[in-house]
Specification:
36% of the residues lie in helices and 17% in strands. By secondary structure, it is α/β, with parallel strands linked by helices. The longest helix has 16 residues. Bound molecules: ligand BJW.
Length: 254
């Protein structure tokens, strides 16, 4: 009952919102079949995802880390965005200003049609030369050779993603912080809200007086601070909100 009231209240807030920000995490792609980071299905072989997404793991064994990325690329290429991704893409044209800030590297938001995206942690479909820093797009699945080498200088390539202990792109996190502090409402979808600095963005929105709406089947450290917690899956809740906001009412009898 209170969940329905929350949903109704969120829809009401969104009706008058001009600048909306959505911050997404791996949970939004779970319904596409892509494992989350910290869920039980986040294991690969016997490794935990958070132990492989580090510069130390890459320094120890570039081959092992690239094999993990190669496996993930293959998995992601075989999956498709779902209705939740598509709703966020459509909202770019529905609100005066709508920005998507994602921690995801899977490219699903782009595939769903989102264009105005800040990818905080990079993109799995790009790689970077460890010597020259040159970034190239590469969609090959499977990759060959592993680890891949720079076509220009022969040095080792690395995934163009942000690992633990590495700084985020300055321009990207700067823009994400500004937008979070300026928005009228922030949706926080499918993230455990534990990884910094992304986890602080909703706090900037709250500090600036904007309501924060969490969409997640589980509680997170953000839950006590969020104005609304919609407990459920992104692929169910986002389309529900969308149809309440933008569905064209049918005329009687048609
Ligand atoms: C659903 C659902 C459905 C499921 N619908 N929802 C102590 C305190 C504070 C900070 C630190 C600290 N110690 C270390 C730090 C810093 C560190 C950090 O935050 N660590 C914490 C873990 C403690 N941060 C960093 O290192 C960052 N850099 C940094 O701080 O730099 C400083 C610096 C400055 C100057 C010089 C040098 C350094 C970088 C962080 C990079 C994170 N990278 C990764 C890997 C990306 C590449 C890859 O994917 O391979 O990003 S880690 C991983 O976590 C990935 C994710 O984007 C990120 C967040 O995970 P996410 O998306 O929230 O996933 P899960 O699995 O955690 O949660 C899924 C959620 O979905 C759950 O809640 C489910 O319930 C939910 N869900 N189904 C809706 N259907």
């Amino acid at each position: 009952m209170s969940e329905n009231l929350d949903l109704a209240a969120v829809i009401q807030k969104l009706r008058s919102a001009r600048q909306v920000v959505a911050l997404t995490g791996s949970g939004i792609s779970a319904e596409s079949g892509i494992p989350t980071f910290r869920g039980a299905e986040g294991l690969w072989r016997t490794y935990r995802a958070q132990d492989l997404a580090t510069p130390e793991a890459f320094a120890r064994s570039p081959k092992l880390v690239w094999e993990w990325y190669d496996w993930r690329r293959g998995l992601m290429a075989a999956k498709n965005p779902h209705a939740g991704h598509r709703v966020l893409a459509a909202w770019e044209n529905r609100f005066s200003r709508f920005t998507l800030i994602t921690q995801n590297i899977d490219g699903m938001h782009r595939r769903a049609g989102s264009k105005n995206i800040l990818e905080l942690h990079g993109n799995i479909w790009r790689m970077r030369c460890t010597q020259e820093g040159t970034v190239t797009e590469n969609m090959d699945t499977p990759l060959s050779p592993i680890p891949p080498l720079c076509p220009d200088c022969g040095a080792l390539m690395r995934p163009h993603v942000v690992w633990f202990g590495e700084p985020l792109d300055r321009e990207v996190i700067h823009r994400a912080s500004l937008l979070s502090a300026q928005c009228d409402l922030m949706l926080v979808v499918g993230t455990s809200a534990v990884v910094q600095p992304a986890a602080s963005l909703p706090l900037s929105a709250l500090d600036a007086g904007a309501p924060v709406v969490e969409i997640n089947p589980e509680a997170t450290p953000l839950t006590p601070y969020a104005d609304f917690s919609l407990r459920g899956k992104a692929g169910d809740i986002l389309p529900q909100i969308d149809s309440a906001l933008f569905r064209v009412p049918r005329e009687n009898g048609s």
